[in-house]
Amino acid sequence: MTERAELFLGIIAFATAAVAIGQLCVVVFAGMAARRMSRMAESIEQQLKPLFSHLDSIGRDASRRAGMPTPGRRRFE
């Protein structure tokens, strides 16, 4: 092999290694981002649970009150 061919093979090997390392970094960072998003979603869910339970109780109360007769008005069943 000539020196020129060995130089090109070395450049190709270095470029291949650099691309492989870059892809590995992308995969690691994507995994970290996915975990962070999962934790954030869980946190938001925990913060919104009381709000939704409160809205549910308001809806149940409104539903019950809608079925109650008002004074001076008869309810037909």
User: Looking at the structure, what is the overall shape?
Assistant: rod-shaped
C-alpha Rg (nearest Å): 33 Å
- Compute the number of strand runs: 0
Distance between the termini: 100 Å
Strand content: under 5%
Summarize model confidence as the mean pLDDT. Answer: 88
Number of helices: 1
Largest sheet: none
Helix proportion: over 70%
Low-confidence stretches: none
Order of helices and strands: H
Main structural class: mainly alpha
Compact summary:
The protein has 77 residues and is mainly α. The protein has one helix at 3-66.
Task: Describe the protein's architecture and organization.
- The chain has one helix spanning 3-66.
- 83% of the residues lie in helices and 0% in strands.
- The chain starts with a helix and ends in an 11-residue tail after the last helix.
- It contains 1 helix and no strands.
- With 77 residues, it is mostly helical.
- The relative contact order is 0.05.
- The mean pLDDT is 88.
